[in-house]
Design goal:
Blueprint (H helix, E strand, L loop, with lengths): L9 E7 L5 E10 L5 E8 L5 E8 L5 E8 L5 E8 L5 E8 L5 E8 L13 H14 L10 H4 L20 H8 L15 E4 L2 E4 L2 E5 H16 L9 E10 L8 E8 L3 E8 L4 E9 L5 E6 L2 E9 L7 E8 L4 E9 L13
Antiparallel strand pairs: 1-2, 2-3, 3-4, 4-5, 5-6, 6-7, 7-8, 9-10, 10-11, 12-13, 12-19, 13-14, 14-15, 15-16, 16-17, 17-18, 18-19
Protein name: Mu-protocadherin-putative cell-suface protein
Length: about 350
């Protein structure tokens, strides 16, 4: 599309409408010096209303389409869609009234369908989702009596009392243990105070870098914790057990148990009860930002991230980075093991 210097427009004559009015139809095509092409059409009715549409193909394969309607009184509506040569998609729509009022909305997606932005999830929506997941959850035997014998490679902190893995952690406990007693908690609410704009991620209005840089930061936080040989014999604070689910789902077969040590290293277990598989969680807390990031098993490119303060809530919004190109919003729902859970108890 860049560098178009020629234009063409020819009248298609007068077409009779069903009501007897005349429509003026204009079409045209143009080719730029670098191989880009554009074509368009505009139709003006007898009352002065005009509708138009244009399509352009860039020299490197990018495609853009635009359409619009303009009323005789000055009101206008338009929509544009663009597809980059790498598969990136952008769309924007707008309406402008005759007196200058306007409304615009837009969306951007990456080549693998990842939304370049975060959808807002209301606290009430998270609460409803969390309540449904807890009601439907039925894997209360994980991290209880006999469970560790079935999964000999599972992570277990030495010296924990019976059922300690399930202990919920408050912010007061977490902040005192991790050295944040004099720091305010940082809440990561994706789509609300963590947003995406013009290719960059903003946290509470502060620029946190491009989307790739934001992923790299999470990857580095997780890798830093994974590289530390954290002994299960050291002091560990249980952060609790969570069901891992998408915000619009009501069930989950995935349980995540987390713990942190004094150095901010994260360890735990990721258990898929549907496939009867367990993998060890490895990650850490970034001291400055309070971001928590961890990987699961041998997969070092997919990173789950949230905030330490989030993990002290009943429902913790989180992100699942599937490499650099795709990020999904998920939810960690805190689980409270019933006292009469049939297989609850101490690990052997």
């Amino acid at each position: 599309m860049h560098g178009l210097s020629a234009s063409s427009n020819r009248s298609a004559g007068q077409l009779q409408s069903g009501g007897g009015g005349n429509f003026d139809v204009n079409t045209g095509t143009a080719e730029g010096p670098r191989g880009g092409q554009a074509a368009g059409i505009a139709v003006t009715g007898p009352g002065g209303n005009t509708a138009g549409r244009a399509v352009g193909v860039g020299s490197e394969g990018g495609v853009a389409a635009a359409g619009g309607v303009k009323g005789a009184g000055g009101a206008a509506a338009g929509r544009a869609v663009g597809v980059g040569p790498g598969g990136q998609v952008g769309a924007v729509g707008g309406v402008r009234g005759p007196e200058g009022g306007a409304a615009v909305r837009g969306v951007t997606a990456g080549p693998r369908g990842a939304a370049a932005g975060f959808a807002r999830v209301s606290p009430s929506g998270r609460y409803v989702a969390g309540a449904a997941v807890r009601t439907n959850y039925s894997h209360w035997g994980v991290y209880g009596r006999g469970w560790y014998a079935q999964y000999p490679g599972a992570w277990l902190a030495a010296g924990w009392a019976a059922g300690a893995a399930w202990n919920a952690c408050t912010w007061n406990s977490a902040s005192a243990y991790c050295g944040y007693s004099d720091e305010p908690p940082v809440y990561y609410d994706y789509g609300n105070n963590v947003t995406y704009e013009d290719g960059n991620v903003y946290v509470n209005g502060d620029d946190a870098g491009t989307s790739e840089q934001y992923y790299d930061q999470a990857d580095q936080i997780a890798a830093a914790g994974a590289a530390v040989p954290a002994s299960p014999d050291s002091d560990w604070l249980p952060l609790g057990v969570f069901a891992f689910t998408k915000p619009d789902q009501t069930t989950s077969d995935i349980s995540i148990q987390l713990a942190v040590n004094k150095e901010g290293v994260i360890r735990g277990n990721y258990t898929d009860s549907a496939t009867k598989q367990n993998q060890v969680v490895q990650g850490s807390i970034d001291k400055k930002t309070q971001r928590v990031a961890f990987t699961v098993g041998d997969n070092k490119t997919s990173v789950i991230e949230t905030g330490l303060y989030n993990l002290t809530k009943e429902e913790a919004p989180c992100l699942l980075h599937i490499g650099k190109d795709q990020t999904e919003q998920w939810l960690l729902v805190r689980l409270k093991q019933p006292q009469d859970a049939p297989t609850a108890g101490a690990a052997p």
